[in-house]
Amino acid sequence: MKNKNQIKAYLAWATICIVWGTTYLAIRIGVQDFPPFLFAGFRWIIAGSILFTIMKLQGYKAPSKKDIPHIAVVGISLLGVANLFVVIAEQWLPSGLTALFITTIPLLVAGIEFISVKNKSWNLQLTGGLILGFLGVSLILNNNLGEVFSSSYYLGIGFLFIAVLSWAAGSVYSKYKKIETHPLMGASIQMLLAGILQVVIGVILGEHTELSFTANGIYSLLYLVVFGSIFGYGSYMYAISHLPVAFVATYAYINPVIALFVGWFFLDETINFQIILAAVVILFSVWLVNTGSVISK
After folding, report:
1. pLDDT tens digit string along 240-278?
2. What is the DSSP letter of 177?
3. Nearest CA-CA partner of 286 in 130, 140, 175, 168
4. Please, which residues have CB within 8 angstroms of residue 167's CB and are 6 or more apart in sequence?
5. pTM over 0.85
């Protein structure tokens, strides 16, 4: 059963790598028409309701009272704060620069895990893999590096730093705070709690007075609900419950590679030697992080 769960977990990780590489663009499109708190809140309430219904129809029980506080901590950290702040940041930042900052998550996850988890060791393979992965993504997104120092992006970068820190901390907490609830049922409750919180804040801020429904906004919302939330976030919670969290976080290195190759395949965008080299470096870094995470247990 353990091997079967691990196979499913690796497939879930692969799903994250492929799907989340496309969500930055969808968010960027959505926040052009929807106010950020309501956009994020609608996404998670709809996705959480659908996933909760699916899990109940399959016979899974709702979380117990003792599991709810831990589920709430994870949901607020990952969705209520981290995902929301990415949405807010993308009002100022281009999707490429956002993707570059997201690649700091594996480094932050490994650091928080090392500091907070008892008997968690560090090794050269894990360190080398994390650094190589970041360098690989920097090669791909080198055109965005200069934008980091643009004064017009400072506010967005500040929000994004809070987002990645909250995501990393919430991921480590979720990994080591075991609950009895199935990971996908827990994910549905996290979505609902975070979504309700975001909608309430949005209404308090008066965002409902700015709300307008456009075709682009609705399409981006639906895409994020189905692919980014139900498939993507559900897969993430399942993966970190069965695999080393530092390895799962390497999805952030793979996302830009997937986005570029999708653009090359469907839109005839250019793939050059530098991008191919970066992809090889990133894949090697993922292998190093995976083997290093096993050693550091």
Report:
1. 998 988 889 888 888 877 777 766 776 566 677 777 887
2. S
3. 130
4. 77, 78, 82, 83, 105
5. no
